[in-house]
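Structure tokens please, single chain.
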Amino acid sequence: MKCSDCGYDLKEEDKKCPRCGREVNSNSGKKKLQKKHLIMILAIVLSVLSICLAVIGFKSFSSPKTVMLQSVSNFASNVKDSLTQVESTFIKQIADQDRVKLDGTLEVEIDPALELGIENFGINFAYTEDEGEEKTTIDMAMVSGENSLFDLDMIMADSKLYFDLKEITENYYYMDFDYISLFENVASIDYGKLVDIAKDNFTAQIDQDKIEESKQEITLGDKKKKATKLSYRVTNQMINATLSGMLEDIENDQELLDNLAKMNGVSKEEFLDSIDQAIQGMQDIQGESYFYYNVYYYGFNNIVMEEITDDTISLQYYHYDQTEEIIVMSEGQELFYIQMVENGNKIDIDGNLSGYTFSGNYQKQQNGGSIELTLELGTDRLTLALSTSNMENKDQLRSKVELKITGNFQGVDLKEGITIRCDAAYTYGEEVQLPDLSGAKDINMMTEEEMNTIITNIQNHPFLSTIYNSLVDSTTGDDDSIYDDYDDSIYDDYTDEESDIFQDDEYSY
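Here you go.
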């Protein structure tokens, strides 16, 4: 102990400081000891209080309804994330444009070992529309090497559909036709808002008292885990209430309502009427049909599986340790299973469909991705390799897709396989140019001579004749086979003009 004035080291028996003469306070040590005891007691009290608060908080945040709502919210968030990934700034711009163009090519290469009669062909297409003027041109040409297989022109204008198949028809023919816009359905919808509306109205119907709770053991990979199962019965009444609430929210959001109606190609009034009719149709269902929404979790709201099930079929979604699994069961029998495991920059995939297995991986890349799957189909083994890429700027969106199929199929070794490539570009602002349609003819006024000319041109066409003859053979072949099975003598009896059967009664067809 030291002197409080000069810091001199004091002895326990010193009453005064030998150096400065200050009296020594004998209670100072006791006060320090009491202070330490007080701090320790306070720490213990705070610890106990923290534990109590943690338990209370755990009970509160792990209540059945809280976990159920968290599960629904997680699902809604996943849906919104998926929608965000496929959203395109350029597509949103297209939604505000009347003049839009889509053009590109589709190429197909077929392994000669398949002996399909054609080894490669391509389709060049160009679609240009002006929704404001209700004018559209469609040009689609199919080629094989340097040979043209067919060239089809179609035009929508003046509430008519015009078409001309080059080398087959001598001019344009038309029929009455209500205008349809390919890009009218590309509306700028806030899908995130729509998902939130559905989530909020669904969760508003969940009643805490109707959640059933039980303990279950589930399998997560190669481990068994004890979990809590929450089960909620979703009835027709609950779905009707959810849809009614959604409709009311949509009606109160004019921007969302306008875009939904535009996407469906109808007016706002027609869109609302169609939803009302759907809701009324569900309300007219006799009896109470329902399904169960089950949630499995352990620990502090660690949800590892959701399940939608009724008496015959169930859909299970597992998510744990960077692993996702989807299982579809029908009356206890597994119909479909897929496991996706995140492994660095790629996702490994394994599964089966009704006993046929598949495996592979998916790799997300810059502005695209690739997936490779190997399918075991009995004695057949096929490998599918799909790659996609998108390039986007303020003037154009270009999308490329390639699918290659190789392997063994029905005893044939597909060394070169089948390759399908598509290269498409979206632009906007181009004016629609219509050809001279003054000589177009009403298809309903087509003469027999014109029809015979078209049929003759098809029969003489190097490509379309094959399709035409196949259709004719399939039709006449079925008819002939019917009569081939009849005895001629019996057939003659029923077709004899003097037969009493046909003279006694009158028949009308």
